[in-house]
Amino acid sequence: MPASPRFRPEPAFSHGRAARVGLLWCNLGTPDAPTTPAVRRYLREFLSDPRVVEIPRAAWLPLLHGVILPLRSSKSAAKYAGIWTPEGSPLMAHTLRQAQALGTELTARGHEVLVHPAMRYGQPAIGTQLDALKAAGATRILVLPAYPQYSGTTTASVVDAVSAWSAGVRTLPELRFVNRYHDDPGYIDALASGIERHWEAHGRGEHLLMSFHGVPERTLKLGDPYHCECHKTARLLAERLGLAPEAWTLSFQSRFGRAKWLEPYTEPTLQALARRGVKRVDVACPGFVADCLETLEEIGLEGKQAFLAAGGQQYGLVPCLNSAPDWIGALADLAERHLQGWPTRAAADAQALAASRNRALALGAAD
């Protein structure tokens, strides 16, 4: 039996076709449906990533398949069912709209960039979308993760997935990666504008809690910059909003397992705020650029219940950036900076193609 080919077949090539630039907008991922089998497939892929769980495989995988997936899948499916929409997963719907809006904004600015959405776990997969960009003629691709703060558990995992795809490709495109934008002025302004819009529509609470996704504390001790970048985002956002130090708090949510994670934890922080007399709190999730299970269910429902049960009276959940025009504009600014030097304008592509043809004609005449 012949051996399988080392590399996947290349897309059909035609001479004279202008090279194109692609942008891969990468989010974490979501189950295909709010069902136990779909959630189990998603969690299996997610929790099997050694970037996400650094426990030795021999110890972790039997625990994952024998205990965690059987117990967690049905519980998570019920939570997903509570936030599912006619469009499907909120994270998927927002990510698709963000990619489309970013492509439209770049086109309006005179750029020709193929913007494709991708998910690190689930569909559309990173490798599938990179194949699609190559098939469409992209020879240069910017990989832009939907993670403002760098972490080995998220940003680096996207790079791993791109590298795994690259190992099976004969003709590689040029690749660039955006590792972080936690202190980008446009990102901070978009966050602040979203909070201000929430205040204008619903009134302003006594205290603002900024809740970021948690990671194990050991990652900080091992050199992961995520903790520091979350703190910088929160500080810059508080300064932009003109908040006094006592008017806001940073916390970390989504703890998993028994190990110590970054503190303070979000739910105990909400309870402590209520017990010290804060009657009205607003919660924003600056590290999430799209509303998802962690914002809508964990913060919007579980966090609210914890705050009210501890004596709080009013609870406001600030929507994520989603497809707000100021955020899409900031994202386009970020993309433009990282695309510099690549021929993203139609006129530039036409000139380069004409110059190439002229050189070929000149060489032919010289022969």
Automatic annotation (TrEMBL):
Family: Belongs to the ferrochelatase family.
SUPFAM superfamilies: Chelatase
Localization annotation: Cytoplasm
GO biological process entries: heme biosynthetic process
Recorded metabolic or biological pathway in which this protein acts: Porphyrin-containing compound metabolism; protoheme biosynthesis; protoheme from protoporphyrin-IX: step 1/1
Alphabetical list of NCBIfam families matching this protein: hemH
Organism: Ramlibacter rhizophilus
Principal subcellular localization: cytoplasm
Sequence positions that bind Fe(2+): H213, E294
GO cellular component, one term: cytoplasm
InterPro entries referenced in this protein's UniProt entry, alphabetically: Ferrochelatase, Ferrochelatase_AS, Ferrochelatase_C, Ferrochelatase_N
Summary of the function given for this chain in its UniProt record: Catalyzes the ferrous insertion into protoporphyrin IX.
Catalysed reaction equations from the record: Fe-coproporphyrin III + 2 H(+) = coproporphyrin III + Fe(2+); heme b + 2 H(+) = protoporphyrin IX + Fe(2+)
Sorted UniProt keywords: Cytoplasm, Heme biosynthesis, Iron, Lyase, Metal-binding, Porphyrin biosynthesis
Pfam families (UniProt xref): Ferrochelatase
GO MF entries: ferrochelatase activity; metal ion binding
CDD domains registered for this protein in UniProt: Ferrochelatase_C (cd00419), Ferrochelatase_N (cd03411)
The protein's name: Ferrochelatase
EC number: 4.98.1.1
Statement: the UniProt record of this protein carries the keyword Lyase: yes
Residue stretches spanning the membrane: none
